[in-house]
Design a protein that fits this description.
The chain is built from 20 helices and 16 strands. By secondary structure, the chain is α/β, with parallel strands linked by helices. It has 3 domains: 117 residues, Glucose Oxidase, domain 1 (3-Layer(bba) Sandwich), CATH 3.50.30.10; 106 residues, Enzyme I, Chain A, domain 2, CATH 1.10.274; 288 residues, Phosphoenolpyruvate-binding domains (TIM Barrel, Alpha-Beta Barrel), CATH 3.20.20.60. The strands form 2 sheets. Strands 1-8-7-3-4-5-6-2 form an 8-stranded mixed sheet. An 8-stranded parallel beta barrel has the order 9-10-11-12-13-14-15-16, surrounded by 6 helices. Helix 1 runs antiparallel to helix 2, helix 1 crosses helix 6 and helix 4 runs antiparallel to helix 6.
Length: 550
């Protein structure tokens, strides 16, 4: 998110931008969810009837979510969205939730009220857990609203059906809505709630839809209001001026040019900057290749582990890793070892309760002890997959705090035959000690999401602190600069694989700070390529100096 203008226009709404594009259009507001069911209402029939109505409503919701998941996966090529929808369907059919609803209807509540109260109890538990689990509260709210609507005999809440393209404005968007958006109709998303890691932001980024989330007052925009949504600036401007619309047209023309640019990325004076893709598994390979990715800068290997009661076997891992590597013959593929623990619990990785998951046992920390065998199996599988592929496998560990962590991981990885070993720089201590860290490994990759979180003491999952999730903050940029300086001094490459890499305005600044590669959602690659081609390295360094001095 770029720094805000010190004298903002009072008519402009501000939030967190997702993507780098700007679009103009007319507002279409999403209908509110059903009202809270009456608390004192009593059913006309016996408790068994109400329990049956509630169960039928939840089954209908689960079936609809599974239908949408299949459509997202098989026809729209949206595996990330499909995974989210399937997880929601499982929530809707949670046996403990069903038992609680049965108990509530048994004491005389209507089906609608029993659903509301049962989900409310689960909601409170997740919100109290904090971190990743708290971010799932919106998923529960969506399932409850859909089930209450079905039980009440009204349509499930959803995206308005309009003949002309529109800017969709909502309190928040559920995964079920975002996953199947008609991109011929929906020009941009504006939500009152949500943060940089909410499902709205994640799925909008994956689908290349410009969005501004966490916009206070968004729902004061009336249906039909003309607005200009600028994702790069994180602004929503009602009734934009002709001058603003002319500037938008010029940006759109540059965007068209960016989509036709191909080949390796270079600055205006010919300095190569590798543009890589962030992917979550084999299903993302085609999108990355079609976008012109020069390799993979972040392969999130946890897709094999999350949602499973047992760890994947060695053979399963080799097959999955090879499927990704085979998509990039001769190119770099950077695999991040399992980033689990704390706010991403796994049944086979018991780490105990933690009062502050963001600062807990996660990433590499989870495997420096009795669970080291899980890391060793993964490293062996990665090495075996690399032996059978023509890709250049690089492996890095998350949540590395210092040179001691870096050396321990490098020794483990090299013992299994891996030759390009690196670390994530997402803890400020690792950035401050980047020279010593890089002495122990072959490369580093900056995770700007967590780096901003820890630098500014702002939980990245907490929407209320979304404004502090700012990679433009001079303190965050200073840590990036220190890592870039260390990379140059040691002759080791330094990349960025956080969301900052996808910002076409920030990309030249990062290059000016010493970053040699940028990894992002595939949809962002063309625009970042075009942005870097407009600047010489010297100009990038000037822009970096200006950003640091703010």
């Amino acid at each position: 998110m770029a720094p805000a203008d010190p004298r903002p226009d009072p008519g402009v709404l501000h939030g967190l931008g997702v993507g780098g594009r700007a679009v103009a259009g007319r507002v279409a507001c999403m209908a509110d969810r059903p009202a809270e069911p009456e608390h004192g209402a009593r059913p006309d029939g016996p408790p068994e009837r109400e329990a049956g109505r509630a169960a039928g409503a939840l089954e209908a919701v689960a079936a609809e979510l599974r239908r949408r998941a299949a459509l997202a996966r098989d026809q729209l090529g949206q595996p990330e969205a499909a995974d989210v929808l399937e997880a929601q369907a499982l929530m809707a059919q949670d046996p403990e939730l069903a038992e609680r609803i049965d108990a509530l209807t048994g004491v005389g509540l209507t089906a609608e009220r029993a659903i509301f109260d049962a989900f409310g109890e689960y909601r409170a538990a997740l919100a109290g857990a904090g971190g990743y689990l708290a971010e799932r509260v919106g998923d529960l709210d969506d399932i409850a609203a859909r089930a209450i609507a079905v039980a009440s005999g009204v349509p499930m809440p959803g995206v308005p059906d309009r003949a002309d393209p529109f800017i969709l404005v909502a309190r928040d968007l559920a995964p079920a809505d975002t996953a199947l958006l008609d991109l011929d109709k929906v020009l941009a998303l504006v939500t009152e709630e949500g943060g940089p890691t909410s499902h709205t932001a994640i799925l909008a980024r994956a689908r290349g839809i410009p969005a501004v989330v966490g916009v206070a007052g968004a729902r004061t925009l009336a249906d039909g209001t003309p607005v200009l949504v600028d994702a790069a600036a994180g602004t929503v401007t009602p009734n934009p001026t002709e001058e603003a619309l002319t500037e938008l047209a010029e940006r759109a023309q540059r965007a068209v040019h960016s989509q036709t640019a191909t080949g390796p990325c270079r600055t205006a004076d010919g300095v190569p900057i590798a543009l890589l893709a962030n992917i979550g598994g084999p299903s993302d390979v085609d999108k990355a290749v079609k976008a012109g990715a020069e390799g993979v800068g972040l392969f999130r290997t946890e897709f094999l582990y999350l949602g499973s009661a047992t760890p994947p076997t060695f053979e399963t891992q080799v097959e999955a890793y090879k499927a990704v590597l085979d998509g990039f013959p001769g190119k770099r593929v950077v695999a991040r070892t399992l980033d689990a623990g704390a706010d991403k619990p796994l049944p086979f990785l018991p780490l105990g309760h933690e009062p502050n998951p963001a600062l807990g046992v996660r990433g590499l920390r989870a495997f420096r002890g009795e669970h080291q065998h899980l890391l060793d199996t993964q490293l062996r599988a990665l090495a075996a997959a690399a032996e059978q592929s023509e890709a250049q496998l690089w492996v890095m560990a998350p949540m590395v705090a210092d040179a001691s962590d870096a050396k321990w991981f490098a020794d483990r990885a090299r013992a299994h035959g891996l030759t390009r070993v690196g670390v994530m720089i997402e803890v400020p201590a690792a950035a401050l000690g980047a020279h010593a860290v890089l002495d122990a490994v072959d490369f580093a990759s900056l995770g700007t999401n967590d780096l901003a979180q820890y630098t500014l003491a702002a939980d990245r999952m907490l929407g209320a602190l979304g404004a502090l999730q700012d990679p433009w903050h001079p303190a965050v940029l200073k840590l990036i600069e220190l890592t870039g300086i260390a990379g140059k001094a040691t002759g080791k490459p330094v990349g960025v694989c956080g969301e900052a890499a996808a910002d076409p305005k920030l990309a030249p600044v990062l290059v000016g700070l010493g970053v040699t590669s940028l990894s992002m959602a595939p949809a962002a690659i063309p625009e970042v390529r075009a942005a870097l081609a407009e600047h010489t390295l010297a100009r990038c360094q000037e822009l970096a100096a200006e950003a640091l001095s703010r």
